[in-house]
Amino acid sequence: MIYRNDITEKNAAMQVAELMCAAARTAPKARGTDTLEIMILDGEDKDRLTVHMRDIGERTERAFFIRDAGNLDRCHVVVLIGSSPAPRGLNCSLCGVPGESSCEAAASFIPPISCAIDISDLGIAVGSAAATAIDHRMDNRVMFSAGVAALELELFSDKIRICYGIGLSVSGKNVFFDRPPV
After folding, report:
1. Quick check: is 162 in a domain?
2. pLDDT tens, 31-50?
3. How far, in Å, CA of 85 to CA of 159, rounded?
């Protein structure tokens, strides 16, 4: 059987995406608390995400959502990593709420204030996933715009409040290289 590059490149992108999901899951987390939800989109689901990114861009007049959607159109897959930023009970006050009971106070706000430690854990997981893509020479880009669209589309459980997307591309030229500033 002959496997041409259109098939092998998509398969490679999916394999790397799966490894990225594992890297995000195993990234260190404060107090061993894992609040992540992780998924991979391709095909019609990825297309639905990019259509919604364009809708957001037009609705909010933020052109970079439209630019980012164009980049993801040329990607094989998108990895989405989201977190439910629940307080960890460390009372570190990094969220901006001072005091010995900052976690309890932050959780009582409506909406609750996001735990800075959890957001840091999400950043470490996203960085670990992106590093995995780089280790496999896979072109990638972390995009909060894709995360915003995923949240609006309710792709995650209702606990997830923060999300990033990472597009993966295999091509002769990095599709993220000549991104116009907006």
Report:
1. yes
2. 898 999 999 999 999 999 99
3. 8
Q: Give burial (CB, 10 Å; 0-12/13-18/19+) of 8.
A: exposed
CATH number of domain containing 142 = 3.40.109.10
The count of structural domains within the chain is 1
Amino acid (1-letter code) at residue 127: G
Return all residues near 12 (Cβ < 8 A) that are at least 6 apart. Answer: 136, 138, 170
Q: Is residue 150 part of a domain?
A: yes
Distance, CA of 20 to chain centre: 11
Q: Report residue 175 as tokens.
A: 């599709």
pTM above 0.90, yes or no: yes
Rounded to an integer, what distance in angstroms lies between the CA atom of residue 123 and that of residue 113? 17
Q: Is the peptide bond before 111 cis (omega within 30 degrees of 0)?
A: yes
